[in-house]
Specification:
Structural class: alpha+beta
Shape: elongated
Oligomer: single chain
């Protein structure tokens, strides 16, 4: 039986790096020229010298946004995929609320209908006026950003150019 143990985890901007200790025989299965035959980037690095596997995972700090009902309001780490799902869900709410607002419903009526606070409705309505370039990059997966930061950018800047400058696009 092969033992693998977690040695350390390092957090850097939007990335977790895990260091697993293992024995050289286990690592030998992950080394060599034929490992990456389909030109996909490896998700881990085998370090035979130090007998460890290094695995990196992109993450986003979740500042109180809920990805499910069990973690609502808590701060934690979430994967890029989870963050992207939140962004797509937020954009769906955004377009839904914008459509209702343009039909003549007040924010109070939308808040009652959706069982949300008026402040939340306004946050989503601000996203409706987000730069189309930013929205396209989010949906293409070429832009990774925390949803809370996206809300801040949308609420502080009405100009598409200013929004894009804040993200250095």
């Amino acid at each position: 039986m092969t033992a693998i143990s977690l040695n350390k985890i390092i957090y850097q901007k939007d990335r977790l790096t895990f260091f697993f200790n293992t024995d050289p025989i286990t690592l030998s299965a992950y080394s060599g020229d034929s490992l990456n035959q389909n030109d996909n980037p490896l998700e881990f690095i085998a370090d035979n010298v130090n007998n460890q596997i290094i695995y990196e995972k992109q993450v986003v700090i979740n500042r109180g946004l809920s990805s499910n009902v069990y973690n609502a309001g808590k701060v934690g780490l979430m994967s890029i995929n989870d963050n992207n799902r939140l962004i797509v869900r937020a954009l769906a709410y955004t377009w839904k609320f914008k459509k209702l607002y343009e039909k003549g419903l007040s924010t109070d009526d939308i808040a009652k209908q959706e069982k949300m606070s008026k402040r939340t409705i306004y946050k989503y309505l601000n996203l409706a006026y987000l730069s189309p370039r930013i929205v396209n990059q989010l949906l293409d997966g070429t832009l990774n950003i925390n949803l809370q930061t996206l809300f801040e950018i949308a609420s502080k800047n009405l100009s598409f150019d200013e929004q894009e400058k804040m993200l250095a696009i």
